[in-house]
């Protein structure tokens, strides 16, 4: 199973054609936190996968792991690191109110 990591995620959206999209915002604090690669390796096409390909979504927010949202599909694991705790909470609330609610696994 492939693993893809995306840092500084600020929002997750569902498009009208059934794709899971995300948005990255890199600020100066994120530059200090994640380093120079956070500025240069920002994802240009913020598409993760289609909604029907999602098997399970796990969320975790601890001191050791950080603010993570992990999206599993059949062939890939997408690890999204939220910018901060409030952003992570907003993403979790959005997922609880969306069509992906049945696939959400809170930890």
Would you give an account of this structure?
By secondary structure, this protein is an alpha/beta fold. The chain has one domain (about 1-105). Helix content is about 20%, strand content about 45%. The chain contains three helices and seven strands; from the N terminus they run ββααββββαβ. The radius of gyration is 13 Å and the shape is globular. The model has no long low-confidence stretch (mean pLDDT about 80).
Short note summarizing the structure:
This is GRAM domain-containing protein. With 107 residues, the chain is an alpha/beta fold. Helix content is 21%, strand content 44%.
Range of strand content: 35-45%
Please give the largest β-sheet.
Answer: 7 strands, mixed
Overall spatial form = globular
Average pLDDT, all residues: 82
Q: What structural category arises from helix and sheet content?
A: alpha/beta
Radius of gyration, whole Å: 13 Å
Order of helices and strands: EEHHEEEEHE
Number of helices: 3
Number of domains: 1
Residue stretches low in confidence (pLDDT < 50, at least 5 long) are none
Strand order of the largest sheet: 3-2-1-6-5-4-7
The total count of strands amounts to 7
Cα separation of the termini = 22 Å
Q: How much helicity do the residues have?
A: 10-25%
Protein name: GRAM domain-containing protein
What's the topology here?
Layout: E1 2-14, E2 19-24, H1 28-34, H2 37-40, E3 47-50, E4 56-62, E5 66-72, E6 76-82, H3 85-96, E7 104-106
Parallel strand pairs: 1-6, 4-7
Antiparallel strand pairs: 1-2, 2-3, 4-5, 5-6
Protein name: GRAM domain-containing protein
Organism: Zophobihabitans entericus
């Amino acid at each position: 199973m492939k693993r893809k990591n995306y840092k500084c995620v600020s929002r997750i959206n569902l498009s009208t054609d059934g794709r899971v999209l995300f948005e990255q915002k890199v600020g100066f604090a994120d530059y200090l936190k994640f380093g120079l690669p956070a500025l240069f390796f920002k994802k240009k096409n913020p598409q993760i996968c289609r909604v029907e390909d999602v098997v399970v979504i796990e969320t975790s927010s601890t001191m050791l792991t950080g603010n993570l949202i992990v999206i599993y599909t059949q062939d890939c694991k997408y690890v999204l690191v939220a910018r901060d705790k409030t952003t992570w909470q907003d993403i979790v609330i959005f997922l609880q109110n969306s069509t992906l609610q049945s696939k959400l696994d809170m930890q």
